[in-house]
């Protein structure tokens, strides 16, 4: 990995561009913003723009360095606000983890694999290699409406899981997807890959429909501010831990038939297993099938699409642990 730094924008905050040594990533550059505190301390890495349309998370990542005073900061805050620069102007949408897996589901990656495998590998093994915590910010592709939540990976190791849960509690939400330890056997989100090495990463999700909205931007930024305080990087107060629910099974809601999808669920709703949460109709409004909840839990996200082929994902539901 190489970084070409420009001049400091303000004392302690520099900007630049990073490139990676893997030949498969030749020509791929990412902007980087790095805040170096007056004292040595932890390294907090924050990335966004894995999914190029998730505007609130990108806007938050661009802004967060300005939330801190380098003179009263310990350690380093390193930010890649736009990872998937190759998708700028392409409006490439998030893809489900099955099938044509996108970068979000490709960790730990593979330096000999596809472009996404190589980029996943470079992000966690080069740029974030020494990160005390890695935050991967997301939120609401062009066709997605999200609940606000955090994803962490549970391991069954109580000491590690408690630290990951403390990091999640920095984000203002009652909903934490704490993926079941069995997920660690598969490629997945960055939090899954790093947890297998007993290192902490979390995914923050807030935003809707590719719009940069002030509340979602503030939600991501506040989470990072509290996380920096928790890590002892600022003199800020560490909040009392929030009451959070841990959800360990994340399932897709899919369309049972091809047709027009009429959804009767929205992010944050509680739904019971098997409950009717909408219908699919034909082009004359006649019901073809009921949409059933695949499991009990909270609706985490909803797709906006009106027409769905059979089996297509139209939302996600996460079930509480235990
Ligand atoms: Zn995303």
From TrEMBL:
Gene3D superfamilies: Zn peptidases. Its cofactor is Zn(2+). InterPro entries: AstE_AspA_cat (IPR055438), N-alpha-Ac-DABA_deacetylase (IPR053138). It holds the Pfam family AstE_AspA_cat. Residues 40-230 form the Succinylglutamate desuccinylase/Aspartoacylase catalytic domain. The keyword Zinc applies. It comes from the Bacteria. Keywords: Hydrolase, Metal-binding, Zinc. This is Succinylglutamate desuccinylase/aspartoacylase family protein. It comes from Sphingosinicella xenopeptidilytica.
């Amino acid at each position: 990995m190489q970084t070409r730094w420009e001049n400091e924008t303000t004392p302690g905050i520099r900007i630049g561009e990073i490139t990676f040594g893997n030949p498969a990533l030749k020509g791929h550059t990412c902007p980087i913003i790095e805040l170096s505190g007056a004292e040595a301390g932890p390294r907090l890495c924050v990335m966004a723009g894995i999914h190029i349309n998730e505007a609130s998370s990108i806007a938050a990542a661009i802004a967060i360095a300005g939330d801190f005073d380098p003179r009263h900061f310990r350690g380093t805050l390193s930010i890649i606000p736009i990872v998937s620069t190759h998708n700028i102007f392409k409006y490439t949408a998030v893809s489900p983890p099955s099938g044509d897996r996108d970068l979000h589901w490709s960790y730990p990656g593979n330096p000999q694999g596809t472009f996404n495998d190589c980029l996943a590998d470079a992000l966690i093994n080069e740029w974030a290699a020494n990160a005390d915590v890695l935050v991967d910010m997301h939120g609401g592709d062009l066709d997605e409406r999200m609940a606000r939540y955090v994803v962490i990976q549970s391991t069954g190791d109580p000491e590690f899981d408690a630290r990951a849960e403390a990091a999640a509690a920095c984000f203002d939400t009652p909903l934490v997807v704490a993926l079941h330890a069995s997920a660690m056997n598969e490629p997945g989100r960055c939090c899954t890959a790093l947890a297998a090495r007993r290192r902490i990463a979390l995914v923050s999700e807030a935003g809707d429909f590719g719009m940069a909205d002030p509340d979602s931007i503030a939600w991501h930024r506040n989470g990072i501010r509290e996380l920096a305080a928790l890590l002892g990087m600022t003199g800020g107060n560490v909040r009392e831990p929030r009451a959070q629910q841990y959800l360990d099974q994340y399932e897709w809601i899919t369309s049972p038939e091809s047709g027009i999808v009429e959804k009767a669920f929205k992010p944050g709703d509680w739904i019971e297993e098997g409950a009717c949460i909408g219908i699919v109709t034909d082009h004359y409004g006649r019901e073809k099938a009921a949409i059933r909840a695949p499991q009990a839990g909270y609706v985490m996200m909803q797709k906006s699409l009106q027409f769905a082929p059979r089996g297509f994902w139209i939302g996600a539901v996460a079930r509480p642990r235990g």
